[in-house]
Fold this sequence. Notes:
Cation-dependent Mannose-6-phosphate Receptor, Chain A, 5-stranded mixed β-sheet, 4-stranded antiparallel β-sheet, 1 helix, Man6P_isomerase_rcpt-bd_dom_sf, signal
Amino acid sequence: xxxxxxxxxxxxxSCGLMVTNTASAATCDQTGPCTCRMSDxxxxxxxxxxxxxxxxxxxxxxxxxxxxxxxxxxxPCQPFTQGTCKDVSACQYVPQLKTYFPLGTQxxxxxxxxxxxxxxxxxxxxxxxxxxxxxxxVCDRGETTFTAEGQDPNVINLYVRQxxxxxx
Length: 168
């Protein structure tokens, strides 16, 4: 194995994941609202260490978006309340309107494999007011960070985020 392959393998193993051939890629079978276990037995994702236990204070609060003028809050594992967002896992605040929009609830959390990416999706609302948050989980040995990319330009009411963490 080349040196860079060894380094990549060590990084993936240290994050609790081991990538296999794409044809036989493992899935992450959900075991809780913020936990899943790799179907091939190579590891587990557990975001519980990242959750704020204070229902009034999300772990990632008032994060500015890179693509719009809105502000986003997110708390994995435990619901929070912010403004008119009640018992949610994700919330959007529109400063110009002084309005909050729920973007997903804890009980709607679903781990979804999208190619090489593992995402955690949340839903809130019904019909045309239904909103969805997609959090791409990125294994990173550095400091835990959460980014808000804003609304997907190709899908109405789909809000994209990234969570960089050793727990992802």
